[in-house]
Write a structure and sequence with these properties.
32% helix; 8 helices; 345 residues; 3 domains; five-stranded mixed β-sheet; 17% strand; globular; alpha+beta
Amino acid sequence: MSHVPRWHVVVTFVDDCGLAVKDPSKIDWFVTELRKRGFELQIEGDFDAFLGVAFEKRADGTYHMHQKGLIKKIIAAAKMEDCNPNWTPTKLTPLGADADGENYDHSEWKYSSIVGMLLYLSTNTRPDLTFAVSQVSRYNQKPKVSHATAVKTIIRYLKRTADMGTIVKLSGKLDLVCYVDSDYSGLFGHEDPRNADSARSRCGYIISLGGMIVYWKSTLLQAICLSTLEAEYQSLSLAMRQVIAYKLLIEEIIKVFRVDGLSTEICTQVFEDNQGALYLATNQRLTNRTKYFHVKWHHFWSHVGPEPPKIQIGKIDTTRQKADFLTKALPREVFERNRNQVQNW
């Protein structure tokens, strides 16, 4: 279709599509053209829900993204409609393999099925679940009773927060912001010391565009770190892969749209709360203590600078570290403060 009008945006996921255009009448034209080419299309209506995610505009101008239907389905599947609700989705102690623990027999519900639904929920609208779900996901193959109990802890938290998702407050600015954190060797003392996982550190980062969170991640680092600095720096390096990709994509989209008065240089900031990792990333000087780092962790150096269009990396206080609840279990007060910073409730 060589005559596709400018400002057609098509979001596609397998066989589901969302269309956004400056002139709504162009949607009919676009659908007609696709049907001429043999596509069988069903028009769902306004873009108030997509792939099970609902978008509600609130009176104050904010948007509430949620998956209330999926949450109710999870609670019902686990037969926990009458459970006592929790204030947080995890206990304060990390969840280990529990090698000598009793096997879970799936008599109440299928472990992998519930965890799969929790994964979809946590990756779309509920960053506050991400760390907890990442923990239980590690044991899909041979879960123990302790792991099933951890899943129930998540569901008890969902029981209390079933109507919530993420409230989006748009900043009105084209700014790309990332917060990155790490928990150094967080499983030490909670796993068999002969198991390599007992020495692994956890990485967490969250990225927002114009005030709306667009990506977040909580995962164990594959390479075992020898210091807090290395754990923080590896996490920063992994986060930068996503940040750089987002930055290049957004700049390309802006150039294609050619919006009058809109700069193609976006303000990109990454916040790190470890002074050593911050120094290494911004000064880009190896020392006797850091020269053993793999070259792959330094891949982003050419993209970093003090002024746009370069990416700026800055220090953030731990109390303002939005990625904190992606790396470890937190007490209720700290967890709720972090959740409010990210999800605005």
